[in-house]
Request: fold
Amino acid sequence: MTKSALVIGGGIAGIQASLDLADRDIHVYMVERDPSIGGRMSRLDKTFPTNDCSACILSPKMADCYGHPNIDVLTFSEVVKVDGGPGDFKVKVLKKARYVDIEKCTGCGDCIAKCPTKNIPDENEYGLKTRKAVFIPHAQAVPRMAIIDPNHCRKLLNDKCGLCEKACGVGAINYKDEPKEVVLEVGSIICANGFNTWDAKISTEYGYGRFANVVTAMEYERMMCASGPSGGHIKMPSSGDDPKRIAFIQCCGSRSEKKGWQKYCSSVCCMYATKQAIITKEHSDVDQEDIFFMDIRSFGKEFENYIHRAQDEYGITMHRSARVASVDENPLTKHLLVRYTDEKGEPKSQEYDLVVLSIGLNPPEGAEEFAKIMGIELNEYGFCETSIYDPLATTRPGVYVTGAFAAPKDIPTSVAEASGASAKAGSHIVDANFEPCAPKEFPTEKETVGVEPRVGVWVCSCGTNIGSTVDVPAVAEYASKLPGVVHSTTSMYTCAQDALKEITETIREKDLNRVVVASCTPRTHEPLFRNACREGGLNQYLFNMANIRDQCSWIHMHEPAKATEKSKDLVRMAVAKVRLLEPLEGAKIPVTNSAAVIGGGVTGMTAALDIAAQGFPVHLVEKSDKLGGNANNFNHDESGVSTVKFLKDLVAKVEANKLITVHLNAEVKDIPGYVGNFKLQIGSEEFQVGAVILAVGAAAYSPKEYGYGKDQKVATALEVEKLIAEKKFKAKDVAFIQCIGSRNAETTYCSRVCCTTALRNAIAIKEADAKANVTIFHKDIRSYGFREELYRKASQLGVRFLRFPDETQPEYDGKSVKAFDNILGAEVSVPVDCLVLSTGIAPEREQKEELAKMLKIPISKDGFFFEAHQKLRPVDFATEGVYVAGLAHWPKHIDECIAQASGAASRALTVISKSELVSEGIIASVNDKYCDGCGVCEGCCEYSAIEIVEVEPGKLRSVVNAGLCKGCGCCVAACPSGAMEQKGFKNSQIQAEIDACLDEALGA
Amino acid sequence: MSETFEPKIIAFCCNWCSYAGADGAGVARLQMPTNFRIIRVMCSARVDPEHVLRAFAKGADGVVILGCHPADCHYIGGNYRARRRIALLRFVLEEYGFDPKRLKLEWVSASEGEKFQTTITEFVNTIKELGPTPLEEAN
Reply:
């Protein structure tokens, strides 16, 4: 029997965990408390630091998840009981009464139109909008189906009305619906419950709930969003006027000992507030945007640059060290007076039209009850208890955690961890008796060869992303007149579940044999639309996209007329090409069921163990003479266990694992090949592997500053850590200088870990000797998440913190450290007998560049590997079968490395657990009629995919190996006789695009 | 040259770097002239000189081919082949008295939205200075 996994929570973390398991042919039950999946991310407008539209990147994942043949999604359901143990859980799930049969509901909305019970605050819009008693959660809801609210429905309350039942054309309304219990048998469980937002009413000093123009960040997110209550136009709630002056108040509910506030840092608010300020500036005519904060915590990938851009390009003012004391309202104008202390400690006040409270992240609602049901423990803050060394495990074996339920965190971290949790969960399911789910069956593809093209065109508004610039109805109207087009329409979000269903159904109803979607970029959305085509019985390659968002509406925001004309041209070109496209089949590629992990540090070892745990062999390649990497230099305790012991145990586990082959002193010479079939070349040896994980790490920055190396008093953080551990640290006057090798002109990024390390060492010094004078010179203290506790503890122990201005650097003369203190407004001199340099993490670009060349993957500006998508594919590359984790991706803490390593392992498992993959259909092919075997193509192929074969005596022909061909088309442009063609990019097809672009008469 | 001249430009972008760079420009909302239309190919080496000649013959005022940076090509060395072909093609164009400035090759990586913006903006300006294609009059 197929054993399943259970994923609790249908937000982005739950979705990613489910997809990873399902892609390994493991059956998944997803249980979501709300009527729609999507979680918090579905309510966001944009995401930092790429400003990607949240709905645009999430909708395809939601559709993938809900439509996945191996995933059963139980929405509006809750877990009520868990029995059993790893490999054999029995989970009782309560399916709450929806009063609408989702097997029948089409999401048409006829019931909603007739419902007389109005003005119920819409929880999905945080009450900024109202809904009826029967409603669809939101426009992009998955499933996009109605639900009746029993607390307001007149029929359910008083047995009156019943209008919705009459309105429903398919008989989906069921007033007698009752909660049902089902028992699921699963091998393992992933908790992805997410988070709740802090209740802003607790901060009475900020006037939320009393003053109309004080809103929370989540409300503001909805106000900014095109699909939100005001259609993306930001208005002052008091008057409906455009706000000109906006203040963002950070740390609402976070980093405080006040009653009802949380002590920890919520990790994401600095970035989301900056994002909101940037997006506001882009879309509205605001004069002034001010962010009030204590420290700016932009520690993630590309975050620091984002903050700089906000200030330099968008003119957003950052008020540092400014805890806002209170907000008062002018009762006449409804304007708000924000009182704060500035950097110099002076009381100040300023007037604003709108105040946005950057509320923090709380544990999910009902976390205590949930923990009891699950038999797991919560930590002191009410989040799921985990340990630094096993960050994805809960206290109950077989039950794992991912996303913000473990600690406040951002989307990419949640996604990487979700993959990681699925690797862990899979280990309880996949054994010798495991039976994978059968592959998905699609309808038989209709015959299209030799049939006159019948093209269907969908033009997407993408909320207002396209629609606010491009005249979408006009483009659709124009498209309807193009040759071959028999159906042309618009949609709000073509990638939403209902629109995809519409495409599938229209293919059948109107007998379409070609489909064009004019929306965003094929790089992210082509697979989704191709799938909709397959569902409709159409070969997936008879589909084409016109990119009218990323490459039109977004880059021509101020020229609507021209952007509309351009969109028409792009649609005309897409239609011209699609008419000539042919049905294609991918070749089947065999897969080697083993992996290579490059780098034998904590990340590499963790990834290797996770892969080996599922029964696959791993080659672990380490360039030095021992495993452990950077962790060999660690000497501190985490979760009460020393890193030295942890590392020793980890190395022992790796060495004892029969499936892991460790290659020490090994230099990777080359890794030719492709997904499923890489050849790992080390020295003179070669190993076949199906996937490659890059865990090559990064190096500690070696300082040149402050006479390091010459002056005995100057040491790095790791050196001091070692002295402290060995109880040899004797200095009495200690100064730490932060951001050495980080956040400066050469290295612009924040190295993320140095603040925490400094706090830990400072605490250790003070605990050993309370009389020691310890001063930390810093720009910001970035002890995000629960690490804030270290900051508090250090302060309580009497560690002094001195913030020096960004553009300056403390001076050191061999005896004392001098710096300008912002608060005192004067130069301060501190005598030292030990100066600790908080050195950052250097990327080791050269080493990465070699691997990047071998595997054809990109490197970011900062010198770290550049993943496929910063938000939703944090450990993948565009090159399939290659993954990244740990410091090679970005500076991070050891627990984050471990979780990400598991994430990369999970992604690799989705490849190597299969016996074969199906290749892209877009490869080169030879027309034998024209080929005379000249060999030009063979000479230019980079992949040795072409061979000149003597088919009969004296007759040479070119032959393409479908498994090796990457489909670049280089040989096609080189072929002198026109015999070589690239499927999907044939000469005739590209020419049709050129002609359609320039020959407007074609469309007119 | 009339001020109302709006050039028609075809931009061939490789799927992996420059097309992604163009998307990146969009994501960053970098604004630029509307005069170009992108044709996506998998690699800059897929661009057959015949495609370029066809575009000019049909009245394009300029053609720009954008590929991955040297050594960054997703297909190992496709961009080097594109570079050789385009260099040769420019030479041929010049031989026929056609200004080779109307054909441009540039490298734009997936993370260089800004470079995409400046490349396109500068090329549009160059073509505006050169004026409408002489071929259209001939047609």
